[in-house]
Specification:
Elements: H1 2-19, H2 21-41, E1 49-55, H3 60-71, E2 75-80, H4 84-93, E3 98-102, H5 106-112, E4 115-122, H6 126-155, E5 164-171, H7 178-209, H8 211-216, H9 222-250, H10 260-284, H11 288-305, H12 317-323, H13 327-341, H14 349-374
Parallel strand pairs: 1-2, 1-3, 4-5
Antiparallel strand pairs: 3-4
Helix pairs in contact: 2-11, 7-9, 7-10, 7-11, 7-13, 9-10, 10-11, 10-13, 10-14, 13-14
Length: about 375
């Protein structure tokens, strides 16, 4: 009798599960998505770090040094610049992660055994910065060893010291403190999670309780209903953003070098996308459980592919292209640049435009669909 009761309950639960194919599909798909994301995106083995080169020597010896960096398979020389201002702008915008400065007398100094080059590193991403720092030193040591071997072969005796020294400067985060990298990212994660989850579940909760119909029959317009439902979560998100900045600054020592006005302006642009996704999920889901799982289908790829945990440069090319469709990717670049680098809007204008376009498109589509659902 006991077993038959249990089997009846099991049968009932399976029937309920199969009667809701949307929830069943989400339950099956989410583990697969997690598997592929963790399998391919969860890696800190960074390669193809974008490098800018200021070669003032332009000699065969300097080209030989550049070949050594290319052969290391950790750097890609994407930019040749002619001044410190040029590579500074590239690093501020995130187009280049490192800059190699070769002095004009490099070839002469190398023959004298006293050559020095400068490697400037972007420390705002601690993982990439640490990889670039260690690799640059290894490349320099390996290249110096090769030069020593050549000199010993030609002269018949070993040189007294290494002929090349790679001097390094780490900008924005000299100690490569991981908190400097993670805490700005936490702002993006919280803004994304809170707004999408709370927006989706709050509207669905109204539908489950039957109170949404009561709102519809009132004189309130549909856009007023949408605005009234969303504004509390916008205010909550801004309050939590301010809290994280204060705690990060005074507890973890994370600098706030950029304009607070610009930080809140760009956060508002990002919120348009997150709120729009939450609103859109509310039009798909019929229950709060469905709303949560639908939003999770967005939040999981968003967290893993945005560069929050793992460098985008370490991911396969396919996932790097997919990440361009995730608003959080652009916001993390913006918030880290504003907090750590103190840049102006000109250095992040591409990301700001991307956030604005995403926000307008997603919010408009979600609002139109929500209005149609109400009608």
């Amino acid at each position: 009798m006991f077993n038959s009761r249990i089997s009846s309950i099991i049968r009932k639960e399976f029937l309920q599960l199969f009667r809701d194919p949307r929830t069943l599909a989400l339950a099956v798909v989410i583990p697969i998505v997690q598997l592929f994301l963790l399998g391919y995106a969860a890696t800190s083995d960074v390669r193809n770090i974008s490098m800018a080169v200021w070669d003032q020597s332009r000699s065969p010896q300097s080209r030989q040094l550049l070949d050594a960096f290319r052969a290391a398979d950790y750097f890609t020389i994407d930019y040749f610049v002619g001044s410190a201002e040029e590579y500074q702008k590239l690093i501020e915008s995130g187009d280049a992660r490192v800059a190699l400065v070769i002095p004009a007398d490099y070839d002469i100094r190398l023959s004298e055994g006293k050559a020095k080059v400068l490697m400037v590193l972007d420390g705002s991403d601690a993982t990439i910065g640490a990889t670039a720092l260690s690799t640059a030193r290894l490349v320099g040591q390996s290249f110096a060893t090769d030069i020593l071997s050549e000199q010993a072969t030609l002269s018949g005796r070993a040189a007294p010291s290494a002929p090349l020294e790679v001097r390094t400067q780490v900008w924005y985060n000299p100690d490569l403190n991981s908190a400097y990298f993670m805490i700005p990212g936490v702002i993006g994660m919280i803004l994304s999670f809170i707004t999408t989850i709370l927006t989706a579940t709050a509207i669905v909760r109204e539908r489950e309780r039957g109170t949404i119909e009561q709102l519809i029959v009132t004189p309130i317009r549909s856009w007023e209903l949408v605005l009234g439902k969303l504004l509390p979560y916008v205010i909550l998100a801004f309050v939590e953003t301010f809290e994280i900045i204060i705690v990060g600054r005074y507890w973890f020592g994370v600098p706030v070098r950029g304009s607070l006005l610009l930080i809140f302006f760009t956060s508002g642009l990002f919120l348009m996308s997150s709120l729009g996704i939450g609103l859109f999920a509310s039009t798909i889901a019929n229950t709060q459980q469905e709303a949560m799982m639908t939003v999770m289908m967005y939040n999981l790829p968003s967290i893993f592919l945005s560069g929050f945990f793992f460098p985008i440069q370490a991911m396969p090319k396919v996932l790097q292209w997919v990440s361009y469709a995730i608003p959080l990717r652009y916001y993390l670049v913006v918030i880290r640049s504003l907090l750590l680098k103190g840049v102006g809007i000109e250095a992040i204008q591409r990301e700001v435009w991307a956030l604005a376009i995403f926000g307008i498109v997603i919010m408009t589509a979600a609002a139109l669909r929500f209005r149609k659902r109400l009608d």
